[in-house]
């Protein structure tokens, strides 16, 4: 029987089928720059206020976030380029039209794009099923019209979801989602029809909440290294996934950027690291381990 929230069957990592990444890598390492657009005067849904200070406009918070696309993105990009990182960006689709230079830079580098809604100041939490279905369709169609590419992954805008989101994400044609921080390996998600994979994201190795809670980038680099060391050791037996999540408005500050460089230098100096995109991780898992994981979960949850 599936445990709450009834989406993921319980499967203890100590006994589940072994995962072997390409070239016998120990860790599938993906880098998630959150490339987002925050509105100056966002519409309010009556439940969640994107800017904590009222009345609007919240000039302090808006301008702090706007720094990311004006300055921070380009500073972060230089470091990523130094290590040839193929990013998987959780993308506010509005960036493609509001910041065409940012869009061009990401497309030129052939980054993977994970749907993150249109704006990071609008949430799906209050949507009806039909409105959420239409929202996902609009995201896919707009992205394809602007880029000629297809979206394979989804992440709710500002992590917002409804109870139906996994069902509708699968129905819309997405292969995977990255909203859940539930495991150190990919896993199947139970949906009404079709297949959906969770590619684990991270809250602990996410710069924005850490910096908001008075930790700094030196500590961020320290805990990322510690996490990598542990996963690298465990990954010798069965492959692990590690994600680092960065926001240009946070990590792209002048006093922090050297710590991103330090972190990437450390991880990328190791053999046995598959620096992959979320599309690659999800597709490899679907082709090689999805069915095996489903069958194994049945034996555990009888």
Describe this structure in words.
- This protein has 302 residues and is of the alpha/beta class.
- It has one domain: TIM Barrel (Alpha-Beta Barrel).
- It has helices spanning 59-82, 95-98, 100-108, 129-147, 165-171, 207-212, 217-234, 248-251, 257-268, 278-288, 290-300, and strands spanning 27-35, 88-91, 112-115, 153-154, 176-177, 187-188, 197-198, 240-246, 273-275.
- Strands 1, 2, 3, 4, 5, 6, 7, 8 and 9 form a nine-stranded mixed sheet that branches.
- β1 (27-35), α1 and β2 (88-91) form a beta-alpha-beta unit.
- α1 runs parallel beside α9 (257-268).
- It is globular, with a radius of gyration of 19 Å.
Beta fraction of the residues? 5-15%
What is the CATH-assigned architecture? Alpha-Beta Barrel
Query: What's the number of structural domains?
Result: 1
CATH superfamily: Glycoside hydrolase/deacetylase
- Rg (CA only): 19 Å
N-to-C order of helices and strands: EHEHHEHEHEEEHHEHHEHH
């Amino acid at each position: 029987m599936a445990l709450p929230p009834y989406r993921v069957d319980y499967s203890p990592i100590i006994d589940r089928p072994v995962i072997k990444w390409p070239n016998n890598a120990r860790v599938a390492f993906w880098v998630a720059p959150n490339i987002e657009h925050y509105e100056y005067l966002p519409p309010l849904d009556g439940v969640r206020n994107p800017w904590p200070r009222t009345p609007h406009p919240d000039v302090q918070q808006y301008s702090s976030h706007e720094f990311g696309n004006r300055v921070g993105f380009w500073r972060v990009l230089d470091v990523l380029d130094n290590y040839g990182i193929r990013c998987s960006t959780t993308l506010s689709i509005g960036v493609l039209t509001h910041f065409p230079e940012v869009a061009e830079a990401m497309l030129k580098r052939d980054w993977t794009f994970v749907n993150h809604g249109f704006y990071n100041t609008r949430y799906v939490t209050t949507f009806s099923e039909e409105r959420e279905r239409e929202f996902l369709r609009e995201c896919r169609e707009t992205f394809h019209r602007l880029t000629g590419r297809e979206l394979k992954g989804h992440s709710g805008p500002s992590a917002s979801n409804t109870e139906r989101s996994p069902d509708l994400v699968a129905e819309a044609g997405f292969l995977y989602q990255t909203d859940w921080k539930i495991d150190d390996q990919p896993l199947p998600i139970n949906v009404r029809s079709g297949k959906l994979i969770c590619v684990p994201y991270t809250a602990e190795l996410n710069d924005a909440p850490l910096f908001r809670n008075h930790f700094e980038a030196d500590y961020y680099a320290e805990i990322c290294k510690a996490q990598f060391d542990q996963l690298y050791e465990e990954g010798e037996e069965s492959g692990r996934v590690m994600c680092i999540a960065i926001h240009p408005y946070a990590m792209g500050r002048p006093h922090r950027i050297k710590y991103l460089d330090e972190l990437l230098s450390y991880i990328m100096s190791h053999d046995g690291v598959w620096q992959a995109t979320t599309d690659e991780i999800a597709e490899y898992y679907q082709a090689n381990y999805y069915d095996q994981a489903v069958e194994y979960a049945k034996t555990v949850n009888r």
